[in-house]
């Protein structure tokens, strides 16, 4: 069985991390082969370091998806997020699993892209939604209910801890942000919250890791708020796990989320999370127990300062976070769900393939 994962981004971040976790979890199955397909770019080095077989595309288009399908000869397409799913539906008659990783608030309402996704839905054998809110807030969710299920992200705890050992540097970070610098992650708000924190604690040290379409705006905001002595923007870091493990807080200011992988990594490492109360974060963070949720910038800054300056509070939150992680992650159950749907798709593909060509749309 050959599974072709299709993604639309050129850089490594949350959904890309999920796919690499999936591929790694099936690496011991002799009858399952998985490949990664996306536009070429910085992602290629990230995949090389993870020993993931990569088929690059020049761009995200129907013609390129069809070209790679002819090259790979997959049995199943596992398409990640809306754009990859729609292009896969236009490119092939192979069984497609659509995997929606983000609850994009911009999909709310009867918008064109939501309608396009709905019209492509008959091509999907199944749709995984990364959180309950991601499914329920999709405008046409009731029409997709019979082929949808919630599949919350999970994580290999041993792998996260192993990656912390690969970095030999030492860090002293109060607040860390890891993620794409995009509209979804709300970088302007991120800087505003950090500015509020510096007013309470002028010696605080924060680091921002990630790249994206709004990184110029981010750097401008750092300068405009005179935060150069407090906030370090590091850009892309291939393995930030040691940095995360030696931070006091993971800060997230997203407008919307699915189940962010960096939040799962923080939990495994016992790092408290301070976040806006969005989507999957509501399920991950026990407010006041493993971290804090707030939609008020000043309150977020106050809570972070309490954690930074109160070792007993930090220790309590860290202990509760580690205990929560021990009960949350079940990689085998996650894998079993995927395998069940892969097997069904594989049987369907080979049943329909008898006596006919069954791959690329004409």
Note down, in words, how this protein is organized:
- The structure is a single chain.
- This protein is α/β, with parallel strands linked by helices.
- It folds into 2 domains: 2-154 and 330-359, Glycogen Phosphorylase B (Rossmann fold, 3-Layer(aba) Sandwich); 157-328, 3-Layer(aba) Sandwich (Rossmann fold), CATH 3.40.50.2000.
- Helices cover 45% and strands 17% of the residues.
- The protein is built from 16 helices and 13 strands.
- The strands form 2 sheets. The chain has a 7-stranded parallel beta sheet, sandwiched between helices. A 6-stranded parallel beta sheet has the order 10-9-8-11-12-13, sandwiched between helices.
- Helix 5 links the parallel strand 5 and strand 6.
- 44% of the residues are buried.
- The model has no long low-confidence stretch (mean pLDDT 92).
Please summarize what this structure is.
Pfam families: Glycos_transf_1 (PF00534). The protein is of the alpha/beta class.
Helix-strand string: EHEHEHEHEHEHHEHEHEHEHEHEHEHHH
CATH class identity of the largest domain: Alpha Beta
Helix content: 40-55%
Please give the count of helices: 16
Rg, rounded, reads 21 Å
Give the overall pLDDT as a whole number. 92
Shape: globular
How many beta-strand segments?
13
- The figure for the number of domains is 2
CATH architecture of the largest domain: 3-Layer(aba) Sandwich
CATH H level, superfamily name of the largest domain: Glycogen Phosphorylase B
SSE class = alpha/beta
Order of the strands making up the biggest sheet: 3-2-1-4-5-6-7
* Beta-strand residue percentage: 15-25%
Report low-confidence residues grouped into runs of 5 or more. none
End-to-end distance, in Å? 24 Å
